[in-house]
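Record 1 of the preview.
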Amino acid sequence: MVFLQGFFSAKYKEDRDKRPKPTELVYKQVKDLGTRLYKIFKKGWMSMEFATFKKKLLDQLRQILGEEKRIHFQSVEKNNGIQEEAVVILGEKERIAPTIYLRGFFEDWNSGRKSIEEISREILLHNACQEREVDFSLDSFENYEKARGQVYFKLINYEMNKVMLTKIPYVAYLDLAVVFYYRLEKGNFQGATMLIHNCNLDAWKIDSRQLLEDAVMNTSRKLPYSFQGMDALIRELSGVSDDDDTEFYTGEEIMYVLSNQEKCFGAAALLYPHLLSHISKIFRKNFYVLPSSVHECILVPDQGQYSRMELTRMVREVNQTQVEDDEILSDQVYYYDRQEERLMM
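->
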């Protein structure tokens, strides 16, 4: 929901925006160049430091564990091309094990807050705790008759995920892609998800059409949509009741938030059958859709107070400054035409 705060901040800046002077433009270009060069240098230096960290960590873990466990470092591909380095510690006959991300541990070591010995002990403790809590069996995932009730869909950006899309089933939609995931629905890890890959379809002996049909039914039925006005949402998040006379209540809603009731991958609600048509009947007018993140969208009835260009600038600024990189959905603003009953770019 950081997008909501950033949106109003961006609108304020837009209203007071002025054309910069030539000297200011030159200064900005030089400053931006210096920032880019610094980032390139820092990235290379941090990469070397991280390689040193991994070697020291591996040596320390092997010293503690001996040959009892297999230790693997792996790069986990996340949304929007984000790569996260992780360590996996497997017993001889184990097929699944916790994935422990290393970024926080590396920052502790690099800053001198913790030694490699302390970090190794923390990782082993973390691994042992998660191993005890794992109550997930691969059998329920590998058998599609058991798994089909737990497949869902979500929306991600097409262009930012081109490499990943070569490995997973998807359906192109506007500048987005509909992709699929398996969701745990009970146990200690309820709500945890796993992206479905092409190899999973081969193992299940199903095609993408079957997967799509099951995912559409499960997602709209098990993750029902949430649709509320911006004022109502702000009051809810602020713990303010509707009866309170506060600055949060304006008396008129000009923006609405669409998600699912769990507020997780809720932008997928854009594709729930007949939902946008139903909302257009409530508004009695066309509306803009601002893709605030993979978790929710903001709907703005077209009453003339915002132009499409203005809304697009706001979305792009907020994406750059407020939204986590792996949660960005799009820089575009969409438009729903209630006569055509169609969402378009």
